[in-house]
Amino acid sequence: MHQQKNSNLYVTFPMKKANVSLGGLLVLKQEIDLFCEYYQIKNRELFCDFESSKQYLTFYQDILGNNLKICKKIPDDAAFLWPERKLVDDNDKAYQSFKRIKYLYKLTKKKPILKWSNEQVVKAKNFLKKYSGKNFIVHLKQVGSCSTLESNANINEWLLFFQKRAKLGERNFILIGKDQISKEILQIPGIISAHDLDLSLSTQLAMMSVSDGFLGMASGLCQAAIFSEIPYVIFKHPNHHAKIMDEELDDAKSFSFSYPNQQIWRSLDSLYNIEQAFGLLNHD
């Protein structure tokens, strides 16, 4: 790669409109952060190959950062292009893969940690200051078209867990996302819904980085925990994307860039397993 006059980073994001996902954007954000830090690039522009990209501009910039601009064409003198063609598979889910993250980790020798704006971090910290004690972030995936076989949360098991462990002012569980959660769970002292309190999605994501840990189901939101320094356990049904997970994980429970207390459990979210996972996060 030779330095040329135009030293901006140009990022190609050819995912079809119907397949734009939060998880894919967070993976892309981490790739951009690692790449720009390594090559000391300040300006980055995103090239989308679908006409309706403008309607997603606010969403893109909210998640990827306001310093990222949408461009209609990649200039001929662009010095930095991402991703390299060899690192993208020919399928719609290629931009949700960790293949390029692991490539950049090997190149930069730096743990992938998402960077959030100061404004988002301050809002997140101020939100958590309202609740004394430890604050654990939880995502209970409840996608209507999915089942527990596709890593939807087993709500009855989580209810039993929260009834036993949640205690306002001591162990608070902050629920993120806009999934429909039962009133039985929401009425437990120590259970707080960030969405119901109008906390923006970007602030919810940034909040993970300043919390005491993350516990929940495999989903797009959990990428913010994976690319952080906090302890986490993420549950993924053993049959959900089994082949992909065999390829993505570097060992049975983690990525090569993960800390020992950052794990993905390909197991059921039973009460026993949730308790064991929480023990990894909480050492009271």
Structure write-up:
There is one protein chain. The longest helix has 18 residues, at about 20-40. The mean pLDDT is about 85. Helix 1 runs parallel beside helix 3 (about 100-110) and helix 4 packs across helix 7. The protein has a six-stranded parallel sheet with strand order 7-6-5-8-9-10, with helices on one face. A four-stranded parallel sheet has the order 3-2-1-4, with helices on one face. It has helices spanning about 20-40, 55-65, 100-110, 120-130, 155-165, 185, 200-210, 225, 240-250, 270-280, and strands spanning about 5-15, 45-50, 70, 80, 135-140, 170-175, 190-195, 215, 230-235, 260-265. Helix 6 (about 185) links the parallel strand 6 and strand 7. It is globular, with a radius of gyration of 19 Å. With about 280 residues, it is of the alpha/beta class. It folds into two domains: about 5-110, Rossmann fold (3-Layer(aba) Sandwich), CATH 3.40.50; about 120-280, Rossmann fold, CATH 3.40.50.2000.
Essential attributes:
284 residues, alpha/beta, Rossmann fold, 2 domains, 6-stranded parallel beta sheet, 4-stranded parallel beta sheet, 10 strands, globular
Task: Provide the fold topology.
Layout: E1 6-13, H1 22-39, E2 44-48, H2 57-64, E3 68-71, E4 78-82, H3 99-108, H4 118-129, E5 134-139, H5 155-165, E6 171-175, H6 183-186, E7 191-193, H7 201-208, E8 214-217, H8 223-226, E9 232-235, H9 242-248, E10 262-265, H10 271-281
Parallel strand pairs: 1-2, 1-4, 2-3, 5-6, 5-8, 6-7, 8-9, 9-10
Helix pairs in contact: 1-3, 4-7
